[in-house]
């Protein structure tokens, strides 16, 4: 009844205003980087931004050496018309207390309507503070968006349901993090976007970077590897975890992952955890060894293109999502599988 009383002229005005907003959409993508290399997740965020009808730019924040080291690569990203840079020692290590005020100042000064980042540790740390500074809602971990720029989809209940949300018109800026496995990576074939420097923003914070401890590995990065071999609690010990999985990962040139049960039991480092509270991956091949398939683990890997499950329990939930399943003792079949893979490579 209320809708039927809306004056036709008013309806036409709202429709025209909405269309104008779509045409005037201006997106800014926060481009993560480390050690002179662009984070692949940021390329997925660029793809999400390009789905809107409007202009898209990127911003690189860090020390001068870090910004200069990654700038040539960033300028080649397809679809970005401009690159903003903010270089200062205070932006080292991407502390939310210093980076968030910078982004919050850039958004209104450049008439930004949508701010995007990958749903990574940095994105999850910085963007809620940006949203708070701008007094708008945070839209996290999206897997889809409409060209209107105000409607998004995101997974809930460990990925078992998809929620469609419409941002309030009061939120003049949409602050969004993107699930990287849901969007293709933008290409690096651009001819070179223009660059504009952004002045440093003064901040009053007592937070300082102290140190970080990183797990260094010669294997492919778990979050972006095309092949992943993961182990679960059925491996029974850290020694077995390494003894069984490492040869298979080496043979497949794969990254190694683990279920939360394996991490909690001390078989693998926390950085290897795949699942709702770990990393979300979507490789071409995912091999689950001795993983039962709890809902929390499935939330982190069920978008993989090919899932191979090895478990001696034929009723394990992992087989419900697996493309190929092998009901057998992992201690017998994994060494045999390694031999077959090595023979096939000759």
UniProtKB/TrEMBL annotation:
Protein name: Probable electron transfer flavoprotein subunit alpha
Cofactor: FAD
Gene behind this protein: ETF1
Residues the entry annotates as binding FAD: 233, 259-260, 273-277, 290-297, 311
Similarity-based family: Belongs to the ETF alpha-subunit/FixB family.
Protein localization: Mitochondrion matrix
Pfam families reported in the protein's UniProt record: ETF, ETF_alpha
Keyword Transit peptide on entry: yes
Electron transfer flavoprotein alpha/beta-subunit N-terminal domain: residues covered: 27-213
Cited function: The electron transfer flavoprotein serves as a specific electron acceptor for several dehydrogenases, including five acyl-CoA dehydrogenases, glutaryl-CoA and sarcosine dehydrogenase. It transfers the electrons to the main mitochondrial respiratory chain via ETF-ubiquinone oxidoreductase (ETF dehydrogenase).
Subunit structure: Heterodimer of an alpha and a beta subunit.
PANTHER family: ELECTRON TRANSFER FLAVOPROTEIN ALPHA, ELECTRON TRANSFER FLAVOPROTEIN SUBUNIT ALPHA, MITOCHONDRIAL
InterPro entries assigned: DHS-like_NAD/FAD-binding_dom (IPR029035), ETF_a/b_N (IPR014730), ETF_a/FixB (IPR001308), ETF_alpha_N (IPR033947), ETF_asu_C (IPR014731), ETF_asu_C_CS (IPR018206), Rossmann-like_a/b/a_fold (IPR014729)
Superkingdom to which the source organism belongs: Eukaryota
Keyword Nucleotide-binding attached: no
């Amino acid at each position: 009844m209320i809708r039927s009383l809306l004056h036709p002229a008013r309806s036409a005005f709202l429709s025209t205003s909405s269309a104008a907003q779509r045409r005037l959409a201006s997106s800014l993508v926060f481009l993560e980087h480390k050690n002179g290399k662009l984070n692949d997740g940021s390329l997925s965020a660029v793809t999400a931004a390009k789905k809107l009808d409007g202009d898209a730019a990127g911003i690189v924040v860090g020390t001068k050496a870090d910004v200069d080291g990654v700038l040539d690569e960033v300028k080649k990203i397809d679809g970005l018309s401009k690159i903003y840079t903010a270089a200062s020692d205070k932006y080292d290590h991407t502390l939310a207390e210093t980076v968030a005020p910078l982004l919050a100042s850039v958004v209104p000064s450049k008439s930004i309507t949508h701010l995007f980042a990958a749903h990574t540790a940095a994105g999850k740390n910085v963007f809620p503070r940006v949203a708070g500074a701008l007094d708008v809602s945070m839209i996290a971990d999206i897997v889809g968006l409409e060209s209107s720029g105000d409607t998004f989809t995101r997974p809930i209940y460990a990925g078992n349901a998809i929620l469609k949300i419409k941002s309030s018109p009061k939120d003049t800026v949409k602050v969004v993090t993107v699930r990287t496995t849901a969007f293709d990576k933008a290409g690096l074939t651009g001819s070179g976007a223009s660059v504009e420097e952004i002045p440093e923003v003064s901040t009053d914070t007592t937070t300082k970077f102290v140190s970080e401890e990183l797990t260094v590995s010669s294997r492919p990065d778990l979050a972006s590897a095309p092949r992943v071999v993961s182990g679960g609690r059925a491996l029974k010990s850290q020694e077995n975890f390494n003894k069984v999985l490492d040869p298979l990962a080496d043979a497949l040139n794969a990254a190694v992952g683990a279920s939360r049960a394996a991490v909690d039991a001390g078989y693998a480092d926390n950085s290897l955890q795949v699942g709702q509270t770990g990393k979300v991956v979507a490789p071409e091949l995912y091999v689950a060894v001795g993983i039962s398939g709890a809902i929390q683990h499935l939330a982190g890997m069920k978008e993989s293109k090919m899932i191979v499950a090895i478990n001696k329990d034929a009723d394990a939930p992992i087989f419900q999502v697996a493309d190929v399943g092998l009901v057998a003792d992992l201690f017998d079949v994994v060494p045999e599988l390694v031999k077959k893979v090595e023979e096939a490579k000759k």
